[in-house]
Amino acid sequence: MPDTPSPGRVGDVRRQNLALVLAGIQGNGGATRAQLAAESGLTKASVSSIVADLLECGLVREASVTRDGERGRPGTGLVLNPARGALAAEINVDYLAVGVLDFSGDLLFHETVERHNRASQPADILPILVAMARRAAIEAAGTGVELLGGELTVPGLVETEHNVVLAAPNLGWADVELSEELPTLLPDAPFGVSLSNEANSAALAELWFGHGADHGKSDRFRDFLYVSGEVGVGGGLVIASQLFAGPQGHAGEVGHVVVHPDGPLCACGGRGCLETFAGQDAIYSAAGIDLDSTAQHMAQLLSHARDGDERAISAVEQAGRYLGIAVASTARVANISAVVLGGHFAALEEWIAPALRRSLGHHAPGLIPEGNVAFSELGQTGALIGAAATSVRRILGQAYELIP
Amino acid sequence: MPDTPSPGRVGDVRRQNLALVLAGIQGNGGATRAQLAAESGLTKASVSSIVADLLECGLVREASVTRDGERGRPGTGLVLNPARGALAAEINVDYLAVGVLDFSGDLLFHETVERHNRASQPADILPILVAMARRAAIEAAGTGVELLGGELTVPGLVETEHNVVLAAPNLGWADVELSEELPTLLPDAPFGVSLSNEANSAALAELWFGHGADHGKSDRFRDFLYVSGEVGVGGGLVIASQLFAGPQGHAGEVGHVVVHPDGPLCACGGRGCLETFAGQDAIYSAAGIDLDSTAQHMAQLLSHARDGDERAISAVEQAGRYLGIAVASTARVANISAVVLGGHFAALEEWIAPALRRSLGHHAPGLIPEGNVAFSELGQTGALIGAAATSVRRILGQAYELIP
Predict the structure, then answer these.
(1) What letter does residue B180 receive in the DSSP assignment?
(2) What's the pTM?
(3) What are the chain A neighbours of B13 within 8 Å (beta carbons)?
(4) How remote is the C-alpha of B180 from its chain's centroid?
(5) Would you say the ipTM is above 0.85?
(6) Chain A residues with CB-CB distance to B261 below 8 A
(7) Residues A294-332: tens digit of each pLDDT
(8) Which domains does chain A have, with CATH numbers?
(9) Cα–Cα distance between B285 and B262 in angstroms, integer?
């Protein structure tokens, strides 16, 4: 039967070949043209032609490399240009943050400012974030890194095509369009600034740099739920080592899985959501910590728990128990077999972990093996790193289209 | 940049072109070669060559067609050969069933036998099912339909590569391998017999023939949860008009979403699962129906509910309430915005529907629009039709590979 090309196939193949080469360079910094050809199945001539384009537009750079276990003179390898980078900005309920990631994946700079953003107005927050972003861009320029684009990540449901925060109940935001505000975070960046959900960003960071990353580990997770513990509880699903965003991009919302039929009212308008038992405020309240005090609530909680305060410990254990219910339900729905906990859940691992494992064993024995309950090691910058790394990938993706 | 073919691309393109043509015929029975060429973007010569192969191996047949609104003499259209078909067999907790679907999608024959299969042995059930399958094949042959393959669908988690029923707790089956038994259902079929999950089969039937099907309806569901109400409660997720099976093929298990932290022990070993509140036995018990009686429990329940018996009505409403919790949680995890209820939930629609809508509004207001709560109209044969239609698709898929 004849091999009949459909319209547009040549362009598709070109894009696909470019993507193969860039993915090869990203996945294996320092690969030579010959190695890229061998890995991608493309001819050396094709690879050389693509690499010439990528060098010309500054996305990649040549680097001398000698590889372990290889003899002879060093070859000329290719790396993503570390003099290019992306900005991440984060609005959360109790802080603002910015960060700069270069194309080699190093977090060059980050800054976090505590701020109560509950029931806030976007117009109050954006100018502060713009000033922080400006400082970040100056820091980046000082180390010779040009920022090509960025991403703003928020604790709420977003619609990325029109840059709308559909619902961020803990900020008090609903249907906030940010198309005009986003570019002000990075006015001269050729690839602009996109918008994302904070828990999805943190899940992607976990996929690319944490428990989902291939650092030669055979036990990395390919299918997992990431749970983000902040004032709100967010989640992101990774399936087959890719973010599973769902039809509207809102999948993995584990914070609003119902864990008690008679549970309290949630900020989302529902009742009995996980967030009402395992969000920071719920834990502080159950632990008897005064939410109106200006003290560091998490520091207080940790100190009480370490001192063996029963109320603090049982508050955290209750969160772990309900977390187990929501994780079990999520695993039944999405057929994932591992969970990574971040944010305050990671800080409280000592008490959360046993309660969560007991709850999983009680409600869904055998569903998630003990070793597949993990805690994030990325710390507070997870969402920031994920948002910046997403921006880098978006820039590389859009750059393909621009190469003539 | 050169268009460099990677190894194996010619074969891929050939398969892809075959798939395009077959999909065109399946989606638009009676399409002419010219229409298939226009729809697929292939040349008429390519389409004619592919169609010649398909005619020769008997998968498609020519048919005279005159289309509404078109003038002139009738063209020669192509249809899937209605003289070819697939068998479906179903083992459920309280019945066995078989059915025959021809390639045009008509259910030619089906038979259901009531039988208590709880704590059953596969060796006791399979011979009965084989006899039923033989009758079905004789019926098919009598109408001139040759059965090319089939599918057995069961109420449990399956592993399709090695034909293992991993866990069907309501049958009492665990790790039952059926590789030797499956072919005996249809000994001479060239494409053999596969294994599937009953709720996934029913979800596929809903996608292809029910609320997910494109009958010119603009309001068909592209993303939905199908909930199967039998003795057990199963589920299947359809996302972007495709079954979302998850990493191991077990996604959508809404029957084991936890709806009460202190709920009763479930057949799965967990506690507080939806099934313990909304499975048939749970509803009968709550309604005060004697499970040891040999009477038709569902007929009793319906009769009591129609007579206004408060205990029966509140039992069904409780099921609807917990169903709402599990559907809300599933929608949060998988980002679906519609639900289709089948099995006993469809039979009990009058009482289930309001309770379910109230519960959704209470636990997740705005998440699933009122009009997106639907009840299956496929009746008891949903899973059977889905399994047979899956078998037809599998046969067409494997047939591509066999055409020289």
Answers:
(1) T
(2) 0.91
(3) 3-5
(4) 24
(5) yes
(6) 259-260, 321-322, 325
(7) 778 999 999 999 999 999 999 999 999 999 999 999 999
(8) 9-80 (1.10.10.10), 84-202+382-402 (3.30.420.40), 216-377 (3.30.420.40)
(9) 18
